[in-house]
Amino acid sequence: MSKLTVFDHPLIQHKLTIIRDKRIGTKEFREIVDEIASLMAYEVTRDLPTMDIEVETPVAKTTKKTLAGKKLAIVPILRAGLGMVDGIMKLVPAARIGHIGMYRDEKSLEPVEYFVKLPEDIDQREVLVVDPMLATGGSAIMAIDALKKRGAKTIKLITIVSAPIGVENVQAAHPDVDIFTAGLDDYLNDEGYIVPGLGDAGDRLFGTR
Ligand code: URA
C-alpha cells in the first residue's frame, strides 16, 4: 500500500486555511497556491539522492553534498494543476514539465482524457503528478495510468486538498504511488465537491465560473 503524507507544517496549514475562505480573490488565491506548492515540494523532495563533490570556499577546499542529478518531471493535470507548477519549479528548476489534460464530465463526474504531452525520457524521471484537488481520484488514476502506459516508473501524487475516498481509490488503483496532501477533508458531496474543501480550484485560480 502506498504511503499517505498529510503535511502538518504550520505554514502550510495557515496558508491552506486562507485559500479556503470564499472571500479570497483570484490573485491572492493563485499566489498562495504557488507558495503551498513550494512548501510541499520542499518536503516531497526530501529523499532525493545526494553525492559528494569537492568545493573550494574562499577559505579551504572541502567535500560537501550536491544533488546526485536524479531527473524530475512535474506533470500537472490540466487545468488546475498548472497553479502548482511554478511553485515547485522554484525549488527544482531543471525539472521538465509534462501536461495531461482531463476534464470532468459534469453528469457522470468521470474524467475524460483529451491531451497528453510528456518529456521523451519520462521512463527515467521521477514524476510528480500535481493537482490541487483529489476528489474521487478518477483524474489522478487516469493520469497515472497514462504515465505508466508511456513508461513512467516512479510516480508521486501531490495534491492540496484530498477527500478520503479519493485517497482510497488512488491507493487501490496504484499502490506504488505515494500521495502527499496538505489537507485530508471530510467527504465528497453529491455535486462532487470536497467538503469543506475550497470550491472549484480551477475556477478560483483562473477567475472563471
Ligand atoms: N475539484 C475541485 O476543484 N474542487 C472540488 O471540491 C472537487 C474537485
Describe this structure in words.
This protein is of the alpha/beta class. It has a single domain (4-206), classed as Rossmann fold. It is built from six helices and 13 strands. The chain has helices at residues 10-20, 26-44, 85-89, 138-149, 164-173, 201-206; strands at residues 4-6, 50-56, 61-67, 72-78, 96-97, 99-104, 111-117, 126-130, 133-134, 154-162, 178-184, 187-188, 194-195. Helix 1 (10-20) runs antiparallel to helix 2 (26-44). The longest helix has 19 residues, at 26-44. The radius of gyration is 18 Å and the shape is globular. The chain starts with a strand and ends with a helix. 38% of the residues are buried. Uracil binds at residues 80, 133, 135, 192-194, 197, 200-202. 5-phospho-alpha-D-ribose 1-diphosphate binds at residues 79, 104, 131-139, 200. Pathway: Pyrimidine metabolism; UMP biosynthesis via salvage pathway; UMP from uracil: step 1/1.
What is this structure, in a nutshell?
By secondary structure, this protein is α/β, with parallel strands linked by helices. Helix content is 30%, strand content 32%. The chain has one domain (4-206): Rossmann fold (3-Layer(aba) Sandwich), CATH 3.40.50.
Radius of gyration: 18 Å
Task: Give the total of domains.
Answer: 1
In this entry the ligands are: uracil
CATH domain class = Alpha Beta
* Parts with pLDDT < 50 across at least 5 consecutive residues: none
Name of the CATH architecture: 3-Layer(aba) Sandwich
Largest sheet: 9 strands, mixed
Q: Write down the secondary-structure element order.
A: EHHEEEHEEEEEHEHEEEH
> Helix/strand/pairing class, anyone?
alpha/beta
